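step=predict obj=MARVEL domain-containing protein n=182
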Amino acid sequence: MPYIKAHYHPFLFILITMCAMAELGLTAYLISVGNESRNWPSARYHSLLILFEFNAVWTTLFGAAYMLWIVDGAVHFLASIASSIIWLAITSALWGAAAGMMHNTRTGGNCNWILNSSPSVNGVLPCDPPQELSVSSCRETLTVEAVGWVLFVLCVLTLFATCMWVRTSKRGYVSAEYKPGM
């Protein structure tokens, strides 16, 4: 079992951290562009982007910390298996809630409706450059949601794998106080 612990756990935390960093960059960009133009589709969308940003910062910081603690072999409380299970459960709930709310907030999965819906969208003809920005913005929103779902699945997978590792390693564990035959 030490082989499994030493090899899959850091890899999953690296994946979680890298996806969170991508989400951090994308949501920071979308928030910055929205703040500059003061053009938000809704207040709920703006709030959700801030929630995604918080989740991305939370996941990047703690994911990187756990990854380094695992590789370093740290033994303090924050580096324990129990704390990583608690962190993974909280993080899974945060990403699942954020991605689910984004799914209900956005208008749909087909971004081509913007071009095909009418000769003008918000008074802009399809040939005008701002129209392309609307399609791009739609795709960026889909990407934010998709990466949120990926992070949710990665956190749940890591949580499940960690719990299974703990369960299988407990089977072969014999307490120092237990001495057979006494």
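step=describe
DSSP finds five helices and no strands in the chain.
step=end
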